[in-house]
Amino acid sequence: MARPITPIRNPDPQRRHPHGFLDFNDAQSNTNLIPKGTLAKVRLTIRPGGFDDASQGWTGGYATRGSTGAVYLNGEFTVTEGQYARRKIFTLIGLYSPKGPDWANMGRSMIRGMLNSARGISDKDQSPQAQAARRINGLGDLDGIEFLARIDVGTDASGDDKNEIRSAVTPDHRDYAQHMGLAAQPGYHPPAQPAQQQTVQQQPASLVPGRPSWAQ
Predict the structure, then answer these.
(1) CA distance 164 to 166
(2) What pTM was estimated for this model as a whole?
(3) Fewer Cβ within 10 Å of end Cβ, the chain: N or C?
């Protein structure tokens, strides 16, 4: 004969549990989010999507094409050091959208910032060397790039909060050298503004086959 099921009684909301650990009303919510505005050095790993378009220079299978026709880089950003070391942040970098140029422009702006940050270039620097450092041979040059990012908070498809990376921090920022580990290096100086740069340009270094343009 089956035993009758005893209904669960609703506890008195004003009554505190005799064992404090078992009362979870005052426990902190585990959002597991890095605070918005945090600066952190990150490494980008591109999760290949297998989409190529040689006319755009998208080769090597790094790009992803979504069901809506949008093309993007599926970015996995790993914090390399500091309080949040080894934490991963997933963000898409737009390359194309059938809805218009805005998303691609945002993606290009982000990549420009990443290159500036990784190569130690002021965003205002328009010298030939700086312009060369902002060119890449292909999307594969971005795979493994390390730069200083500003962590943001957005929402996922379910409406839940999640960390995102929408911008890179360049040497113009006062905390750039500290976070990139340059402040302690002897002889380090922030990049000069364009008006302070020397007018005599150095001879370009000899090109080395197989190296990306920014490394020439």
Answers:
(1) 6
(2) 0.73
(3) N
In the block, tokens 């002889």 appear at 187
HSE of 119, CA atoms in CB hemisphere, 13 A? 25
Counts for the chain of helices (H) and strands (E), in that order:
3, 7
Tens of pLDDT, residue by residue over 98-157, are 999 999 999 999 999 999 999 999 999 999 999 999 999 999 999 999 999 999 999 988
First to last CA, the chain: 84
Strand stretches in 66-191, DSSP E: 71-79, 88-96, 146-155, 161-168
Write the Ramachandran bin of 4: left for phi over 0, alpha for psi from -120 to 50, otherwise beta: beta
Residue ranges of the chain with per-residue pLDDT less than 50: 184, 195-216
Q: What is the DSSP letter of 69?
A: S
Closest CA to 45 of 83, 89, 81: 89
The Cα 44–Cα 184 span in angstroms is 25
Residue 154 carries which DSSP code? E
Of the candidates 20, 197, 204, 43, which has an alpha carbon nearest to the alpha carbon of residue 125? 197
Residue keyed to tokens 């999507």: 49
**In this structure, is the dihedral angle defined by the CA atoms of residues 47, 106, 115 and 52, taken in order, positive or negative?**
positive
Q: Quick one: which of 197, 215, 57 has its CA closest to 132?
A: 215
Strand partners, 72: 64, 94
